[in-house]
Amino acid sequence: MFTGIIEDIGTVQSIKQKKETIQLNITANKIDLQASQVGASIAVNGVCLTITAKKASSFTADVMPETFRITNLAKLKKDDAVNLERAIPIDGRFNGHFVLGHVDQTTNILRRYQDQTALIMVFKMPFKLQKQIVTKGSIAIDGISLTIIHADKREFKVGLIPHSQQEATLADKRIGNVVNLETDVLAKYIEKQMQISKF
C-alpha cells in the first residue's frame, strides 16, 4: 500500500520489451534502496511493481501484459522521469490517502493554467470512472495523491502547489500527455455496494 506522497523522481535507464511485457531498469536519486529487498513493492508512476533486482541506486522491475495495456508505462522511453514511492512501512506515518498502486485506466491532459501559485491541470473524465471522481474527493494521478477541485461529466481538475510542482513529474506534462489514474478505493466499494443493493 502507498500514500501518494512521492519520494523521488527516478530516471529510466533501460527498457527491454517483448510483445506486451517490459523489463524496466530505473535509477533512483534520493531513495536509499539498501533498505528495499528484492521482492518488495515500489510504485512507478503510481503502478505497483515488484523489485526483481537492485544495485546501490537502481532497480529492475517487470511489467506484465495487463499493466502494459492499462497504464502509461508502455509509453516510457529511456531517460524519462518517473515518480517513485516505496510501500508504506507498517509503523510509517500516513500522509496522503490510501493508494493501492492498481491503476484503473489512463486519461489525457486537456488544459493547464496558472492560478497564482497553483498550477491547475484539467483532465478528460473517463466514462467508467465518473461515479468515483467527485469534487473534493481524492485521486492518484501518476501516483500523486491529489484533491479534485471540480468534476463533471466531461472533465475534472486538480491543483498543484509549488512543492508538488517540484517534487513530482506531473507539472512537466503537456496537453495531450497520458497519465495514470487510480480512484479512491472507498469510492470503489461504495459504488459496488450500491450496485448490489439494486438487486
UniProtKB/TrEMBL annotation:
Pathway note: Cofactor biosynthesis; riboflavin biosynthesis; riboflavin from 2-hydroxy-3-oxobutyl phosphate and 5-amino-6-(D-ribitylamino)uracil: step 2/2
- Keywords assigned: Repeat, Riboflavin biosynthesis, Transferase
Which sections of the protein are Lumazine-binding repeats? 1-97, 98-194
One biological process GO term for this chain?
A: riboflavin biosynthetic process
Q: What EC number(s) has UniProt assigned to this enzyme?
A: 2.5.1.9
EC main group: transferase
- Entry keyword annotation includes Transferase: yes
Q: Which Pfam families match?
A: Lum_binding
Q: Which Gene3D superfamilies match?
A: 2.40.30.20
Q: Does the keyword Transferase apply?
A: yes
Q: Which reaction does it catalyse?
A: 2 6,7-dimethyl-8-(1-D-ribityl)lumazine + H(+) = 5-amino-6-(D-ribitylamino)uracil + riboflavin
* Domain of life from the UniProt record: Bacteria
Residue span(s) of domain Lumazine-binding: 1-97, 98-194
Q: What does this protein do?
A: Catalyzes the dismutation of two molecules of 6,7-dimethyl-8-ribityllumazine, resulting in the formation of riboflavin and 5-amino-6-(D-ribitylamino)uracil.
Provide the assembly information: Homotrimer.
Name-wise, this protein is Riboflavin synthase
Question: What is the source species?
Answer: Liquorilactobacillus aquaticus DSM 21051
